[in-house]
Amino acid sequence: GRRQEALRALDGAAEVMATADPSDQFSILLNRGVLHLDVGSLEAASRDFERCIEVARASGDALYESKARHNLGYAEFLAGRIPRALAAMEEAAREPFNQHPVLLLDRARVLREAGLAHDADGILAQAAEKFREAGLPQDLAETDLVRAECALVEGEVARARGFARAAERVFVRRRNLQWQRKAQLLGLQCDRLALDERGPRSRRAALRQLAARA
To answer: Crossing angle of helices 101-113/137-153, nearest 10°?
Structure first.
């Protein structure tokens, strides 16, 4: 979770990567692009992913190109261009060797944002199983968090709270404060929606307590 330090290290690597193998150049650019996404620098991220595509094409590596194209689609998603994001991700998914469950997670995030929560949850269930089998707790917890968001959209507050709490426990163990706070915020949203069933007086008192927690 120490993104700024990682970004400075990758900037240094990018400055001296001209003579590196294509696979190393690709790794530097891809990881830096992901960090740019994390801090909201979408244009910088897109530039890195576009350079990744160039490196992959020059070396004839279709798998690397599809990975970069998928991430470029995710940058489009964060920029609010949903149709372009889905088109890029679908093109990337045509590469038969590029079947990492992270691709499923990202596509589900786009579908959820487009209002297709039920479709997104079906994909998330597949991703969660693959992450569990691969022993990838961070990715599994992120998947649970998106499943919580989908459950909230469907009005399933208790189910959403269960996913959010499971994700939070993982982030606490990993000492990843940024993702821990995301899970806690979603838990607060679950508690807020659960208050709608209370009477006015009880609800006001509970809202004050909830605000203090927030």
So the answer is: 20
